[in-house]
Amino acid sequence: MDGELKSGCPRWLAGLVSAVVALALGCARQTWKKEDVMTWEGCCKGADACLALLQEVHGPDTGEQWLSPEQSCAAWKLGREGEDVVPRLIPLLRHADRRVRGGAAQALAKMEEKATDALPALIEAYAREPGGMALHALASLDDERAAPAIVRYLLESPTSALAHLGPTLAPVLLDVLENPESSWEELVLVRHVLSRRASMYTETFVPRLRALLARELEEPTLRRSPGTACPSAPAPGCEAVFDACTPRAAYVASVLAAYGRQGAKAAPEALQALQRADVRLTPVALQALVAFGSPAAVPGVLEQLAVPECRARALASLVSLGDVARPVATEPLLRLLATGEEGWERARAAEALGRVGDAAALEALRQAVYAPHSEVQAAAVDALGSYAFHTHAEELVPLLQRVVTTHASPVARSHARLALEGLAEQEVRHAESIDCTCIIPGRSGGWTLCEGHTSLHLHWEKPKAPPRGSPCAAVPGGDSASVLEAMGEACLVGWDDGEFGGTLEVHEAGRVTVLEEPRANPLRVVRMHGALVVVEGLAHMYGGAGRLVRVDASEGRWRATPWVTLPGAPMAYALDDAGDLVVGTTNQRLDAVVCGRAGTFAPAHVVRVTGDGRLASVEPDGRP
């Protein structure tokens, strides 16, 4: 990857390789530029200059939610000023230009408790413009006086602000969930927000949610949103669907499921919900039991495994359940590994076998390392390296060493390297690694590297505001989505929260289908060979991870298929002349990125994915 490109290589590949190498190696920081959000220190100096920059607007207002880099920088600098700047920001909340109003609110949000005197003005600004930036400042202040306004304007509020309500204001979302008069739209919105913030306020929220679920299940007839009607019994499915037929108990169970093992005390209520045999409640209750790691989920998951339309969901559930499903899941998984029609089915069966950890699967997994399909090979290596098989290290190490040095699949080599590191507790170098002495987050190829306290994750630019009339135009939370893709009359929506996961949903008129939650990092949608594919990925801690998820519909029901595993976090992509997807990835370590540790290896790959889900490395001249 770090060698010279051969003459005559495809132009798209040269650009892709350049983007991958530039991102893997990083780039030096320069003086502040208007388009550069990484170095805001130099954009303005002093309150007067920053207030002037905040009020600079160029061209007509396009309706974009996010401020320009200049205004964002000015707001950030003003947020670091003292309380004396607050009286100068308050009048700007009534400025004629929406962008200036938003900048003033953003500056007050960054001031936090220093902006307390602006609270009445912010509540008035929120009432005038619920979809603006005022709620972000109110969330930052976290004052109970804002609670009535939040309830009143809930459906018009940006979910990115609702998701950041503090401990004083956040309980108003539970109030909405408990209110029997809450509409379907309100329940859908609150479910989404509470599920995305499930790591917060566990000690107080989980008991309250559990009690609410128990009350809903006490009803002889499950309650639904007022004013809605379910004209006929919907067809059974395995995905969580929220529409007029969905009982209120399903919204509560879905939020509890987002707490994972921390919500496990609600397993008895989730089992009771499963036993109600309601078409809309059953898949949500089963997903909650899976999230809790409850053995009670295993029979239902195995029933799903036997249904082709539910197989992807069932395999993901078995991966999550792990040894809880041992030994009853071993035989059906081995059968699927041997006879599955598609490569992804056999691959995900191998992955699940690794998590289940039954030694009876070892021989089949060893043989699958050199199966005909690249995805199966990589998944088998990953399974053999799982912690459940560490007691068999003596017999597995020689095989993993051969994979690292000779295997054709870059994903298999990456998995084998990580497995050997786990067994030997030392770093194993890639033969194709780029030796970096200093790695600094940079920007190239349309990707921005977003640096956080504990992770480095890769984001595409936020989607542009969809045009009026688009099925994506009215999606709640579209302002903070990483993916917004129209699919006929439906909209595919993804939110990526870095190491905290994310979600992938399909929004239609009167219905929301949750395809992935919370283990998702959707970044970009690509259409290849007639299929709609979501690029997902994250670079975090000891390396990067990425995958391609195929989204399709069958008999009116949407599903997401975990199609291809990538050798690291995706950074750039292209479609070649044959319509195949070519992706650039990196698997660099977080400590190398943050600390610039000398001698660290940051493997970068360019791989081609064909229409049948096979993956192969691409040479610099464009050949597989």
From TrEMBL:
Gene3D superfamilies: Leucine-rich Repeat Variant. It comes from the Bacteria. InterPro entries: ARM-like, ARM-type_fold, PBS_lyase_HEAT. Transmembrane segments: none annotated. Pfam families: HEAT_2. This is HEAT repeat domain-containing protein. It comes from Myxococcus virescens.
